[in-house]
What we know:
By secondary structure, the protein is α+β, with helices and mostly antiparallel strands. The protein has an eight-stranded antiparallel sheet. Strands 2-3-1-4-5-6 form a six-stranded mixed sheet, with helices on both faces. Strands 21, 22, 23, 24, 25 and 26 form a six-stranded antiparallel sheet that branches.
Amino acid sequence: MLENIRNFCIIAHIDHGKSTLADRLLEFTDTVSERDRKEQVLDNMELEREKGITIKSHAIQMIYKPENVEYKLNLIDTPGHVDFSYEVSRSIAACEGALLVVDATQGIQAQTISNLYQAIDHDLEIIPILNKMDMPSAMPDEVKEQIIDLLGCDEGDIIEASAKTGYGVDKILDAILERVPAPKGDVDAPLQALVFDSVFNQYRGIVGYFRIFNGTIKQGDFVKLMNTGKEYDADEIGVLRLGYEPTKTLHAGDVGYIISGVKVAKEVQVGDTITHVEKPCDIAISGFKEAVPMVFAGIYPVDADDYEDLRESLEKLQLNDASLMFEPESSAALGFGFRCGFLGLLHMEIVQERLDREFDMDVITTVPNVSYKVYTKKEELIEVHNPSGLPEITKIDYIEEPYIKANVITKSDYLGSIMNLAIEKRGVLKNQVFLSTDRVEVTFEMPLAEIVFDFYDKLKSISKGYASFDYHECGYHQADLVRLDILLNGEQVDALSTLIHRDNSYKFGRRMCEKLKELIPRQQFEIAIQAAIGAKIIARETVRAYRKDVTSKCYGGDITRKRKLLEKQKKGKKRMRQVGNIEVPQSAFLAVLKLD
Length: 596
């Protein structure tokens, strides 16, 4: 019965109460038993519970029976963070409606708007919900005005609720039944199902989550994925409750899972289309794209003997997180390791954290950087993910770097400081809209490389935590970039090389040298720390040598005796410098990230 199915998602900014509202809906529909109840039921990763964010999207089916009519409600949960925006877009494509949750104490934030626009692009029915109404600091009237300005809805359409106490949850469920349209689809047409998520099960392989748009799938059917062309038997299909619940058949409009013994994460990709091998559908569901990494960094084991363990750990992690890319690389300073591609900085932080917790791996991460397009004078195009991969300056015609469109929503008091920060980061102001008398949305275009380091931290401190930030890629632009190398006694340390805009290179090089002077321990010989662009040295600091007072035994007497002893010491220092090995402590690599 298609008319008794409702597929919906919840969209909100981080920490606006999305996971808590999902908990209340599950309790209200008795999907979760008393015994299984806990906070953030759908966030099953320890890291998610600790950070209070959804990293992996989840789906669950609820049965709701008002007046003894059974409705199937499929909640397709979405992660809220910008780094996982592709997963959000696929989850939204699998729904007909969306609950727009806005925090009554904070109002509309940047990611609320960006996810809302995605939902509107897919023609979803939006149900606005004003959450946290139980809080003393709630501002219902002001926030309602913001929602009405944004959506153009009536005040009566906005549902007041408190996910913490359960107030208003019954109204939300009724609104889902009344306002969200039932799925359309032809049960007898060829099978056409969208994969919106996949997870790895240690014993059963990849579990694909899908939503059927047309047709029917039965257990044991021979199916294929249209974009990768791989064919499988549907060993088990079923619906997603708190666990997996196997069924024999699923029809158009249903949301379910498929297990077919696949062991390679890349074969079941988010956004792909499942169809039958014998009677395939004509066209795949549009919108499929492979996850493109935005930020790159090298990950190296602290102990060189752990290289193979690190490879295994990354492979296992990739099964649960298909957007993680990695390939082997080696560095003169750090030995053998991997070049990893991440969707963004939060994604990078989470991968590091999971390597530490789940696999007990001690790793060093190099300076994160983005991918550049280098055009040579022979008109070749080289993609560079690592500064050491840059061709010689004489062979380069020009370099292009990725740009982003950044949306910042802030209180108008902090507008001046935020504009200064964006301009300092080579940003160009594109638009400025006042959402209310004291809230403003500012749009910038700026290089992705400039936000990789500390942009987000600085934004939060300037705005006392009020500003919210969201971005998406908007192509490549030509830039005057140079490779800044760090030399220790004339030897280049490749792990500290960075690609940087020429205007910032002198200042950055000087700060790097000063920082390294503090961190590199003194030796028996002098160490020269230099920052260089090509053959040109732009900054220098010196770590002084430890020195023994060799003249202390000379009481008075001729100066030539003292000079002879000092000359002898000088020769020894020189010889030691030739054979001496400079150890760069791990703190030096990490400190480069924290340069203010």
